[in-house]
Structures are given as C-alpha cells and as structure tokens.
Amino acid sequence: MWFKMKSNGIQKIATYMLIGLFVLWGITRIITGYLSNTNQWTAEDKEQLKKMCINDVGGRAVRFAQETEEYCSCFSESITNGFSKVEYQYIKAQGEKEQNEEFMPVILDCYNEYQKAMFDKTSLD
User: Dihedrals φ, ψ of 41, to 5°?
Assistant: First the structure.
C-alpha cells in the first residue's frame, strides 16, 4: 500500500514536471519569436532610414532632390542588407568615428554615385 501511494506521488510529480516543461518550452518559443521579429527590418524601418538620410543631407536635398532621393534609397537598402537591426542600433550608439568606420564600407558605392551625380549636375548648370 505504501508502495502504491509513493508511486501515485511520483506520477503526480512527473506529470507536473512535464506540464512545467511544456509551459517553459512555450514561453521560450514566444520570447524567441518576439526577439527574432524585432531584429528584422520592416518596410517602415527602411522608409525611416531614408527620411533620416534626407534630413542628414540638409540643403543638398533641395538642390539635388532626385539625386538625394536615389542616394538615400541606396543608403537605406545598403544598411538593411548589410546589418541586422540590432547591429545597426549598436553601431548608432557608438561615436561618429566608429559609425563611419562601420557604415562607410557598406554605403561607399551609394556615396560615390551621389557625389558623382551632384558633380555632373553642377557641371551642367
């Protein structure tokens, strides 16, 4: 009889442990899914990067509107293809020198094309 009671107690403990494991597994899946989604670039993020780029360009955005639009689109695409969202946020938290060292190799082609486009337009004026 004592053996039977002990067996039922062990079964209850095992059942509770199994339920606990399933709950823990479910919570882990939810957290992992949330974190992986926050690391993904969205179309809204890309548009925000583009707007930030246009603001950073300043007066050139008016004088070279089309060229700036193309540059900032290229910039946004290059950043989102070159870095995860978390990597980008980490780099943005650093100083300007460190940001330039990380971002410039990724956006260099965009930057060179922008410089060339502005030069060409200025030469034609």
Answer: -75, 140
Alpha carbon of 2 to those of 5, 7, 9, 14: distances in Å? 5, 9, 11, 18
Q: Taking a C-beta distance cutoff of 8 angstroms, is the pair 75, 49 a contact?
A: yes
Q: How far apart are CA 114 and CA 125, in angstroms?
A: 17
The Cα 2–Cα 5 span in angstroms is: 5
Does the global pTM surpass 0.85?
A: no
pLDDT at 27: 66
Kindly report, residue by residue over 90-124, the tens digit of the pLDDT: 999 999 999 999 999 999 999 999 999 999 988 76
Query: What's the number of CA atoms in the CB half-sphere (13 Å) around residue 11?
Result: 6
Instruction: Give the containing element (helix H, strand E) for 87.
Output: helix 85-92
Is residue 113 exposed (0-12), middle (13-18) or buried (19+ Cβ within 10 Å)? Answer: middle
Instruction: Give residue-wise pLDDT tens across range 42-54.
Output: 999 999 999 999 9
The three-point CA angle 100-110-125 to 5° equals 115
